[in-house]
Amino acid sequence: MSKPVPKISVVLPTYNRRDVLPRAIASVLAQDERDFELIIVDDCSSDDTQAYLASLTDMRIRTLRPAHNLGPAGARNFGLEAARADFVAFLDSDDVYLPKRLDASIAAFARDRDVVAALSSCVRYDLKRERVVRIPEMTLASPQFEWALFSDLIGVDGSGITVRRQTALEIGGFCQTLRCIEDREFLIRMARRGRGHLIAEPLWAKYWSTDGLSVQWERSGAQLVDYVAVRPEFTGEFRRLGSYFATKILIADLRHGMFGVLWRDVRAFAKADLIDGNIVRLVRYHRQVRRYRREMSQPERLATISGPPTDWH
Q: C-alpha distances in angstroms, 136 versus 10, 130, 140, 153, 202?
């Protein structure tokens, strides 16, 4: 007899994170919602992750190991394809779920059949402090959701994403050529299929990791170039955004005293057509977009967005 289909599937990819993996797993098993399956994708770890996973006895846990390392996006796709529930939540192995993570996400889809993706606020444990990163409670129509993602008006992290499985499969899952920003790019494509719901309550926690991809500052420029190669809108109709993201990284390079990285990023951005020699225009674009993002990230303004300002075309 086949097992009943769970209300929700959780996909947890991991690679050589044996030290923090038990914490992530425990946070899923402690959820208020008990009807789930936890799919752990061991992305060919070389530590003792495989032996640890073999010791787990909870019947809701399924462990998968691909034939070769797939990377973060590929491992998520591997789990997404294996998931049995209509809704799929993701969790990075160095993060944890808070108790209502699954409950609140399921409720968001139950209230609105047109919602294809949900995101939530989170708690971040940085090196020296704890802080809550909030997003407002609201549902964004498809074009609003897409533009908010393009312009980075709402925070995106893999552990905060829940999606309709069928829609995620139809768009091809996560882009496997990206090792960073793949979660945002994935949601941009999801947004073209329906609404996005934002949950103000913090539902998960992110822990500082010295070897995490998101803190490898010197690679930010290369990551942006890879992202723009997949999303050419940043050198076309949304050129101001692309220029802003590039100059923002250059300013960070300068502030951190990474002059070798700065020069490398300048050349890479010029080759990718993100910047040119018109310094006055670069400064103007940077100020325009910075001011726009500051204004439109306010909850009351975010609810009114419809696309880029008309004078950006």
A: 24, 19, 11, 11, 11
Neighbours of 301 (CB within 10 A): 13
The strand ranges marked E within the chain are 8-14, 36-42, 61-64, 87-90, 95-97, 115-125, 130-133, 138-140, 162-164, 195-207
Question: Is residue 120 located within the same domain as residue 263?
Answer: no
Asked if 99 contacts 188 with a C-beta cutoff of 8 angstroms, the reply is no
For residues 197 and 292, membership in a common domain is answered with no
pLDDT digits 0-9 by tens, 130-158 = 999 999 999 999 999 999 999 999 999 99
Q: How far apart are the C-alpha atoms of 31 and 200, rounded to whole Å?
A: 18
Q: What is the CATH number of the domain that holds 197?
A: 3.90.550.10
CA angle 218, 246, 188 (to 5 degrees): 100
Instruction: Report the domain count for the chain.
Output: 2
Residue 107: CB partners within 8 Å, gap ≥ 6?
A: none
For residue range 53-71, what is the model confidence (pLDDT) as tens digits? 999 999 999 999 999 999 9
Structure tokens, 131: 């802080």
Last residue of a domain, one of 174, 207, 240: 207
| Backbone dihedral region for residue 257 (phi beyond 0: left; psi -120 to 50: alpha; all else: beta) | left
Domain boundary among 175, 207, 239: 207
Cα–Cα distance, 53 to 56 (Å, whole number): 5
**φ/ψ of residue 125, rounded to 5:** -105, 95
Q: For the residues of 259-274, what is the DSSP string, one character each?
A: HHHHHHHHHHHHHTTS
Paired residues of 205 in beta bridges: 96, 123
Residue 9 tokens, joined: 């599937």
Q: Using alpha carbons, select from 1, 83, 58, 20 the residue that is nearest to residue 212.
A: 20
Q: Provide the residue range defining the domain that includes 282.
A: 216-312
**Does a structural domain hold residue 2?**
no
Q: Are residues 61 and 98 in the same domain?
A: yes
